[in-house]
Each structure stands twice: as C-alpha cells, then as structure tokens.
Amino acid sequence: MTARRTGLREQKKQATRQALREAALRLALERGPDNVRVDDIAEAAGVSPRTYNNYFSSREEAIVAAVTAERESRVAAAIAARPDGVRLADAVADAVVEQYTDPGTRQGDALVLITTRPALREAFVDAAARVEEPLTDAIAARICDRDRDAARVLAASVAAAIRIALDRWTSGTAGAPAVPGGLVVPSGPLPDLLRAALAPLAPALNAAEERAAARD
Amino acid sequence: MTARRTGLREQKKQATRQALREAALRLALERGPDNVRVDDIAEAAGVSPRTYNNYFSSREEAIVAAVTAERESRVAAAIAARPDGVRLADAVADAVVEQYTDPGTRQGDALVLITTRPALREAFVDAAARVEEPLTDAIAARICDRDRDAARVLAASVAAAIRIALDRWTSGTAGAPAVPGGLVVPSGPLPDLLRAALAPLAPALNAAEERAAARD
DNA sequence: TACAAAAAGTGCGCGTACGCAAATTTGCGC
DNA sequence: GCGCAAATTTGCGTACGCGCACTTTTTGTA
To answer: Residue A5 pLDDT > 80, yes or no?
Structure first.
C-alpha cells in the first residue's frame, strides 16, 4: 500500500524529490538563503526550474522539507506501534514527542538557519499541518475505524497543538542566549513544549476512545 | 481598545480595505474571477496596485474577505456574551453556529462563486484560521485568564474543526444537485456540520473549564 | 520486441508577490 | 496656521508560481 505505484516511476520521483530538497538545504547553508534562486536549486539537482515547482510550491518548502522529511507520516506509524493497552492520549503524546525529537532534528546548522529567517520559520511551523492526514488514519484505527470525521477533527487539533509548540520553540529560541556549549538552539524544552501543548487535548482523545469502546 | 490608533488614519485605512474587498467581489461577480486582474481591483478602489498588496497578500484573499469580513472576531464577542452558567463547549458551539450561519453568509451569489473555483474555496476555508487569535482571548477569559497556552491550543483546535466543517460543506456542495428553489448552495447542513465537527472537542473544552473552576 | 497509453519533464508566457527607497499624506505640539 | 516626525502610498525591479501545450520517458500489453 505504501509503494502502490508501479516501481521505477515512483522510485525516480522520490529520488528527484530528495535531490531537490538536499540541494536546497546545502545551497542555503553555503551561501545563505537569500542568495539561492530556484534556478540554482534546480540546476544543482539536475532538473529544469519548471520541474522544481512540480515538487515544491515555494522556495522555502524545499529547504524545510530537507529537515522535516517524512517525519509526519512516521508519527502515524509510531502511534500504530503502541500497544492497545495505553490510553490514546498517551500514545499520541509519546509518539509525537518521539518523532519530533532529536533523531530527525539533529541538523543543528539547518535549524539555526530556519529559526533565523522568518519566512523559513513560518514554513517550518506550517509543515506540521502535514500530520493531519496520516494522523487521521492512525486515530481512526484506534477508535475502531468508525466516526472518521471525529478522528479527523482530533488529528487536526493535534496538528494545531504541534504547530503551536513549534512556533513557541522557534520564536523563544530567537530571544534566548546561546548556551555555553556553543549551540544556539536549545533542544531541551521541545519535548516539554509538545507535551504541554498536547495536554489540553487529552480529555477529547480519551473520550473518543472510550466512546468507541462503549459501542463494542 | 478597538480603535486604538488615533482616528482619521485608522479610519481611512479601514475604508480603503473595505473599498478593496468590495471592488474585488463586485468585479469577480461581474466578469468571473479569472477575468479580474489585481490592477483592475486597485483601480476600482482608487489605489495603486502596490497598495493592494499592502492590504491583501493574494487576489483570492480580498474576494473572500468581502464575505468573511469581521466574522472571526465576532465569534469571540459572541462567546463572551454567553452567560457564565452554560458550559464552555456549548457556549463555543452556539457562538460558532450563530456567527457562521445565514446573516453574514446571505451573499448567495458570492458563495456559488467561491465554492466553484478551487483557489477561492481554499482561501475561504483557510480564512477560518483567523478565529484563533480572538478565540484565544475569549476562551482564556472563560477559564479565568490562567493558562493562556491551553486556551490557545483549544482555540486552534476549534478553528481546525471549523475549517473541516467548511471544507466538507463547500466540497459536498459541488456534487450536490441544485435544490428545486434554484439555489445551488444548500445552506441547511452547515450548522449540523459545525456542531458535528465541534462535538469531539467538547470534552477538552469542558475539562479545561472544570480545571479552572477547581483552582478557585 | 513493438507499440500505444500514461505519466513525468520541459519551455514559454503571464500575472502575481514583495523588498526597497522616494514621494506623499497625516497627526501633533507649538 | 506651521512645521516636523511618523505613517502610508507609490513606482520600480526582481523573482516566483503555475497553466498550458509539447516532448521525453516509463509501463503494460499484444
């Protein structure tokens, strides 16, 4: 179901997409994001400028995608991986924290770049919206596949909470002084911010779960 | 607090904004949205094209704003107007339904226009995100002004629910046959869609309210 | 292997979005 | 009234986003 489309086609497509976002990030780091034209990225990735816009609808999107990558869809997988015993709210919170923490975000240089430029920051924060779709499936599966509409609302709410946490994280970062170690981006509070943002939604998530259980 | 800025300045600004969105809608209705250039709207409103983009960051935004207007901020006011006795979830649902129903949306012609063109539909649906800020204030006031962070998450969740309801409404509309009366847009189900979308969030809203009450 | 259908890549052209700096307008104290 | 500082408007130039039609590549089938 993942690689439904035949094979070589989809394979090359993903390769091109990856080449584009890596080229975008590399060039942005090398010369600063303001000195990178779309044409440069396309050329570096070996495709035409027009093709670039078939993959990304803005310059910022490609750069951010290099850091974000497939994180959004992994959140859904992480939730599905949790045992059925744990409460839905906990499963979601743990999965989100797990996926939005270090492993995927270890690109320190890229993050300072993103948090510095407002346009990139906005694109980075807005990228959280992409969890909605996979998350809808994951939550729908937990609440027994009924009431997909409720699952979508809950997923969108979780996405909004993540967005708020990231917004706070990246903006609070700007004002905060660099830690002695030399890192400008304090990665410490992010898990806390995520959990705090998700906490208010816990009653809704658990209630949906209970409602589903009561029906069976 | 509403008209904080001196007076004549802000007044003219609002006048210009209104002139722009009304011109945008009028021209779009007259010749179809694809035959309206930004220059035309600016000229009709008596400002330069560049000024247009000081007020709206896309062509769709102005057209949609003519319908949306100040609805988002009125939702917050409507919530504040509810007596303290009613549960927060009910107050929110009632206020949202009240504001997103007929009075402001009676522009039938404009709505068929918007639901027809994908770009306008998207702009219309995304406009719901503008409730987040005023709604945050309204909810924060209800939960005793503490924990503004939770209020923001809840407000963003409500905004997401509204967005989903509008999305369903405008898309479902496209496929539905015109009612005998001649109207293509069935305004009937919108309140139902809104309530259904908001329902899953009720536990979270009420829990926040109770938590605040328990602290006092 | 050959071939037709489908899908991805490409070039072109138009209209848009926005940074920048000059010009104009507004608000306020005197 | 007068003039100055701040805010707003405007023109210009650049780069971007994307629809469209066309070319190239991949896929499934005979």
So the answer is: no
